[in-house]
Amino acid sequence: MKILAYVLAGLLVLGGLIFIVGWQGVWVRLVVGLVLWAAAGALVVLAKMQPAQTTVVQKIDLSGDVNLQNLTCRQCGGSLGPKSVSVQAGAVFIHCEYCGAAYQLEEEPKW
Predict the structure, then answer these.
(1) Using CA atoms, how far apart are residues 41 and 12, in angstroms rounded to an integer?
(2) For the chain, percent of residues with pLDDT exceeding 90
(3) What CA–CA distance (Å, rounded) separates 69 from 76?
(4) Domain boundaries in the chain?
């Protein structure tokens, strides 16, 4: 998005330069050129103010009672910590630090 703003600002500066160079005593052309330059400057300032990163927070709404459990790897039985669990697209994924196994955690039905 920043690149697009800089390209558009460059085009506005070029257009403003054309109006200012060719004003030939017509004040409206000079004013239009200066307004184009001001718009280009405003675009550059806005592009620099835009945050570089966006933080996405995902919240999971669990149904029913939830009890804290110690998670262990299906393959090697190793203890899984917070770094081993990640949420992607609403699903819980496990990556074992010990054996390298990766799988999606599926909740068993409670009936």
Answers:
(1) 9
(2) 36
(3) 17
(4) 2-49, 56-111
